[in-house]
Amino acid sequence: MSLLDVTDLSVAAGGVDRVRGLSFSLSADERLGLIGESGSGKSLTALAITGLLPEGLTVRGSVRLDGTEVVGAPERALVPLRGHVASVVFQEPLTSLDPLMRLGSQLAEPLRRHQGLRGAPLRAAVLDALREVSLPEPERIAKAYPHEISGGQRQRVAIAMALACRPKLLIADEPTTALDVTVQAEILDLLDRLVAGRGMALLFISHDLAVVARETSRVLVLRNGEAVEAGPLADLLAAPRHLYTAELVASAAALDAALEVS
């Protein structure tokens, strides 16, 4: 059985489908890239998988996460899945970090809820999680508020929070778009190391084919809420079947060429 099975998923807003008839699966140790331009339905798909879609959106189809049906499930059935079975790292960590709470306290929440840690073991686990994402001075970071550290450090904290309870699936939704090129490379290296080291499944979401190619071996291309092409990354790069995929490949190749010249 797959860790994640998405079948005929549709997400509608105001009676208009933003995601239409999407189907794919993900095994326990597999990496899948979900690529498409802004508005293609990538982030809505990530939110639907974890049952985090905002009110006012209508969901049809099926999302089975580690055997549990997410679509239509009550909140009490979804809470144990989040952080323990699947976690999300978002594009902007400030959306997932409480600006009024110290970072160590925020990181302690999932450890307390899912692993039952208290006292000294909890404090030790918080510092270990910060060290694992290569943050300097973890004691200082744990006492800091989000605005007191850099954007790259905030994203590392967000990754530490997502991975604290050792989920089976990590969903990375444009996790480096808001960062400069150098920090972006560091975060991608970190994600690659942690996913490989823990043997997790990865759903990597991006508009950038070059970034997706760095992290995944299989790709699903979305456009206007629909899957237009899917398959092994090498096949899509060598012989894209859909015009939109060909445009993505050409854009990535042009960028690589420009960087080589510069």
Care to describe what's here?
By secondary structure, the chain is α/β, with parallel strands linked by helices. It has a single domain (2-77, 88-260), classed as P-loop containing nucleotide triphosphate hydrolases (Rossmann fold). It has 10 helices and 10 strands. The protein has helices at 42-49, 75-78, 103-115, 119-132, 138-143, 151-163, 181-198, 209-215, 233-238, 243-261; strands at 4-13, 16-26, 31-35, 57-65, 68-69, 86-89, 169-173, 201-206, 218-223, 226-232. Strands 6-7-8-3-9-10 form a 6-stranded mixed β-sheet, sandwiched between helices. A 4-stranded antiparallel β-sheet has the order 2-1-4-5, with helices on one face. The protein is globular.
List keywords for this structure.
41% helix; membrane; ABC_transporter-like_CS; single chain; alpha/beta; disordered C terminus
Kindly name the structural category. alpha/beta
At CATH's second level, what is the architecture? 3-Layer(aba) Sandwich
Rg value: 19 Å
CATH superfamily: P-loop containing nucleotide triphosphate hydrolases
User: Which spans have pLDDT < 50 for at least 5 consecutive residues?
Assistant: 257-262
Overall spatial form = globular
The largest beta-sheet arranges its strands as 6-7-8-3-9-10
Total domain modules: 1
Instruction: Report, as a whole number of angstroms, the end-to-end distance.
Output: 47 Å
Major beta-sheet overview: 6 strands, mixed
Strand segment tally: 10
CATH class categorisation: Alpha Beta
Multimeric state: single chain
InterPro entries: AAA+_ATPase (IPR003593), ABC_Ni/Peptide_Import (IPR050388), ABC_transporter-like_ATP-bd (IPR003439), ABC_transporter-like_CS (IPR017871), P-loop_NTPase (IPR027417)
Keywords: ATP-binding, Cell membrane, Membrane, Nucleotide-binding, Transport
Main location: membrane
Pfam families: ABC_tran
